[in-house]
Amino acid sequence: MERKLKLIWEFRGPNAKQTAQHHEIHLKEYILAKKLSFNVTGCLDINEMYSIAYLVVIESEMKKVRDALKPHRGQLYEE
After folding, report:
1. Rounded Cα gap, residues 41 and 52, in angstroms
2. Helix, strand, coil shares of the chain as percentages rounded to 5?
3. Does the reported pTM lie above 0.90?
4. Which domains does the chain have, with CATH numbers?
């Protein structure tokens, strides 16, 4: 079984929450358009001025997604 990686986009400022939520919509569209084999996305509010959106991919798809979407960082995904 391949490792799963969480690609993360960070948003800061008074509109961080709304921006992260909107970004997640585009991540879901990307999953459908590119027919990715894993389809986990989400948003997380760290505090009122800092939120993240994320997309989980399998390791073999990571490079093409990373190069296309340019996440700010990544980490191993644990379910």
Report:
1. 11
2. 40, 40, 25
3. yes
4. 4-76 (3.30.70)
